[in-house]
């Protein structure tokens, strides 16, 4: 899994503009983070949000029939994504009726993309439960995360590193990663982590309690703040 940043971007064909980037990064809804700071959010085009479930390679946890799904767009080398991962695990454990979908958006470095390819290989080979476990393991560690580190962590799941590397370098994984990153760009989710809850995009990590409040509001009134 070797590529430099220029080659990676050219192969994936990820542009700098998307269908929703013209929207501002203000507050459509007045919501606060766990620290009491305003959370940047924006209304997203429903037709684009409706395309998310069709993406290949999303790692899901929670019931498939859940009425509410929270999507996280993340980068394995985003420092805020480490805190977010711990909170995602906490939310999944405390809200068994919530479905969480993890979507790769490795915009920070080629190393992030390498790790994402390993995660997608695990998801393709072993399914979402194994990919969810790898997500928690990688983001609970310290230091930068690259393909080699991700392969070492994934080896504990029982799949030879050579096999995972082959899957990660496949056309299927390349296209899945390209589609996931394109979705983030189309939605204007330029920060990591970012979230999609209903037709609202959240930029940055607001914290577990704040997310729980927004999820509860979504269930009451179909928006993140009632």
TrEMBL record:
InterPro entries: DSBA-like_thioredoxin_dom, Thiol:disulfide_interchange, Thioredoxin-like_sf, Thioredoxin_domain. Residues 33-182 form the Thioredoxin domain. It comes from the Bacteria. Pfam families: DSBA (PF01323). PROSITE patterns: THIOREDOXIN_2. This is DsbA family protein.
């Amino acid at each position: 899994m070797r590529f430099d940043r220029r080659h990676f971007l050219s192969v994936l064909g990820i542009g700098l503009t998307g269908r929703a980037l013209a929207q501002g990064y203000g507050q459509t809804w007045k919501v606060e983070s766990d620290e009491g700071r305003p959370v940047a959010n924006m209304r997203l085009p429903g037709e684009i949000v409706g395309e998310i479930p069709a993406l290949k390679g999303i790692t899901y946890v929670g019931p498939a029939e859940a009425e509410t799904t929270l999507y996280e767009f993340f980068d394995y080398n985003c420092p805020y994504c480490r805190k977010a991962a711990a909170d995602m695990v906490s939310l999944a454990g405390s809200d068994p009726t919530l479905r969480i979908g993890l979507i790769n958006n490795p915009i920070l470095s080629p190393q992030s993309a390498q790790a994402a390819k390993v995660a997608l290989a695990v998801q393709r080979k072993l399914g979402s439960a194994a990919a969810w476990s790898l997500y928690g393991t990688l983001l609970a560690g310290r230091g930068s995360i690259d393909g080699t580190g991700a392969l070492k962590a994934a080896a504990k799941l029982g799949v030879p590193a050579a096999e995972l590397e082959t899957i990660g370098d496949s056309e299927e994984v390349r296209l899945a990663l390209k589609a996931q990153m394109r979705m983030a760009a189309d939605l204007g989710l330029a920060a990591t982590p970012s979230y999609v809850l209903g037709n609202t995009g959240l930029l940055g990590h607001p914290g577990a309690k704040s997310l729980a409040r927004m999820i509860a509001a979504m269930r009451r009134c179909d928006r993140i703040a009632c």
